[in-house]
Amino acid sequence: MNVNLKYFASIREAIGQGGETVRTQATTLNALRDELLARGGAYAEVLAPGRAVRTALNQDLCDGDAALSEGCEVAFFPPVTGG
Amino acid sequence: MTFTVSIQTQDFDVSQELSALRAGDARVGAVCSFLGTVRERNDGSSVASMELEHYPGMTEKSIAAMMEEAKQRFDIFAARVIHRVGLLQPEDQIVFVAVTSAHRGESFKACEFLMDYLKTQAPFWKKEVTPEGARWVDARVSDDQALARWGIEASNSVAP
């Protein structure tokens, strides 16, 4: 399926773009994160297990078990610091 | 005006916002508000300026959800949230939350609840310019703890 990825703040800077569309076999957010990790480079660094990465599916905060669907929007970002 | 949120680069007038929030509603006996401003110091460094980034779409959605939650929890009539994004300087206004109710207790509580919620659940990120260079602001454990007081578990600042 196709998934629309979005990156924000320090993760966006490290990856060098604000988003991309990827074709994936992953059915969960964790599996998708593993695919991105396998690319190495900045992806492996900022999405590494143990890093404080927050995730959203279709603009709702979610955890790694969240199920992906065709055309969904997945965002990776660091802890939020507004207010 | 009822429950509204604005994400904007431009400044806002607190007095006008407070007037508009309670205009035409004679049930209102209390208006509580919080105004967050840019400090000249953070984590031991002087801050020359600050850049605020957000996630368009999710930001509005998450704040609308937190207002809905506040409406369920507290006896309030209206609420207003404004959050600025883009480039800001020390002393600039960043965030405004205001709530109306019949008596002060409900709007005091709702205002604090909304700010605690926003701090850990709304997708904003601050980047500060300091003499040591630009740096992304770290999330604070104390903000997660502030939301926990309302019975909501937050793990914004913690790595899994």
Automatic annotation (TrEMBL), chain A:
Ordered alphabetically, the record's keywords are: Nucleotide-binding
Q: Does the keyword Nucleotide-binding apply?
A: yes
Q: Does the keyword section mention Nucleotide-binding?
A: yes
The Gene Ontology terms for molecular function here are: nucleotide binding
Database matches in SUPFAM superfamilies: MoaD/ThiS (SSF54285)
Gene Ontology annotations for the cellular component aspect, listed alphabetically: molybdopterin adenylyltransferase complex
Q: Show the Pfam families listed in the entry.
A: ThiS
Task: Give one GO biological process term.
Answer: Mo-molybdopterin cofactor biosynthetic process
Q: Which family does it belong to?
A: Belongs to the MoaD family.
NCBIfam families linked: moaD
What name appears for this protein in its UniProt entry?
Molybdopterin synthase sulfur carrier subunit
TrEMBL record, chain B:
| Gene Ontology biological-process annotations | Mo-molybdopterin cofactor biosynthetic process
GO-annotated molecular function: molybdopterin synthase activity
Q: Which InterPro entries match?
A: MoaE_sf, Mopterin_biosynth_MoaE
- Show the SUPFAM superfamilies listed in the entry: Molybdopterin synthase subunit MoaE
Superkingdom to which the source organism belongs: Bacteria
EC main class here is: transferase
Q: Give the enzyme's EC designation.
A: 2.8.1.12
What metabolic or biological pathway is this protein involved in?
Cofactor biosynthesis; molybdopterin biosynthesis
Q: Give the reaction(s) catalysed.
A: 2 [molybdopterin-synthase sulfur-carrier protein]-C-terminal-Gly-aminoethanethioate + cyclic pyranopterin phosphate + H2O = molybdopterin + 2 [molybdopterin-synthase sulfur-carrier protein]-C-terminal Gly-Gly + 2 H(+)
The text of the family note is: Belongs to the MoaE family.
The family database entries (NCBIfam families) matched by this protein are listed as: PRK10678.1
Q: What is this protein called?
A: Molybdopterin synthase catalytic subunit
